[in-house]
Amino acid sequence: ANQYTWAGRFSEPVSDLVKRYTASVDFDQRMWRQDIRGSLAHARMLARQGIISAQDLADIERGMAQVAEEIESGQLAWSIDLEDVHLNIEKRLTALVGDAGKRLHTGRSRNDQVATDIRLYLRDAIDDIQVLLKAFRSALIDLAEKEAATPMPGFTHLQVAQPVTFGHHVLAYFEMFGRDAERFADARKRVNRLPLGAAALAGTTYPIDREFVADQLGFEGVCENSLDAVSDRDFAIEFTAACALLMMHISRLSEELVMWMSPRVGFIQIADRFCTGSSIMPQKKNPDVPELARGKTGRVYGQLISLLTLMKSQPLAYNKDNQEDKEPLFDAVDTVTDTLRIFADMAGGITVRADNMQAALTQGFATATDLADYLVKKGLPFRDAHEAVGHAVKAAEFKGVDLPGLTLEEFRQFSPLIDDDVYTVLTVEGSLASRKHIGGTAPEQVKAAIARARHRL
Ligand code: ARG
User: How much is the pTM?
Assistant: First the structure.
């Protein structure tokens, strides 16, 4: 009365340590819905093809409904004696319906079964992520719209560079996360293929109908080659790479949020519900959420490297190594999902301190390029204009003022082309308004970009 699945071939059960080492049920049970869905599609196909009887199918369907109920309500006792989610469910089904349960695995292997489960799981995860990404990007548009005309210093090298509007800055992230959404959509195409039918590696002797199963499960088609179907996890790696890139963008935004919230900078406030205090310093309000997101980016990079390394050099076809794909994958899914959910919410909790942004704009000669452009428009070659303005900046710095703090006489020492009208060119508003081409920071262009962004979403 050996109860383990492959008892026929073995003369002794594995040790408890090996059992624990090889079991995956603790983490792969999260795919139970996909496992049952895949099994039902497989069973329907078997019945349609006359491989099992209609009665068998009815028994399997009835039994699986109960198994699902037991799992849902937490009644099913998962057992590491049954190694993984697949065997746990199959054993419970068989206990409930007898021989029909034992016929379910006809023409199937856990190798094509698990590959199917992961793909179904990942497809669901991608669809969830897309919904969250859309909500997040929509929140970014709202924020950009509120601050479409709010001037802030744009930076290069973390030095004040040129004025931009806060809305324009936020829309830069909208673009990044838009490409992330495209990457997930693209990865989904390669996830959405059916491995079932590949069986262990070589296919099966039964007259199966893979197209029917693919159709039942909403797959776009079948994996063409049985060896490839059971062994490669490139689709999971690709998905995780998309997660890593998304988190890279999240980490950039996080870094800026942390910096902007520093009292030294003071560009924004983040609503209290996303911050925490200090156990010792009563004055503290720390941007924990963006800091953690920045940290969790490393975690997702790690999962990507885990999966790449897991797959590297694996000979065809299935190897047990692949059981190790699940924890990194699930962790990447969880991390990205939680992060997006929080960020979509947090975007609405950001308030801008326009006064501090304005103050920062008066330090750092943010309109120096505008002055150079002004001279070019009066006929000076750009390189000469660049040099003349360089001298003006040096003089202003020496005098302890921003460029508009120089008198007309002082300006004229650097170029006789400079007139009274220079002072409008040197204003932040003038600087912003003049960058009025598509993709520029002029408030009217930012508003147009917002309208396009809403439309694209
Ligand atoms: N739990 C296994 C996995 O995650 C299922 C496939 C096992 N197949 C095998 N031949 N041992 O990959």
Answer: 0.95
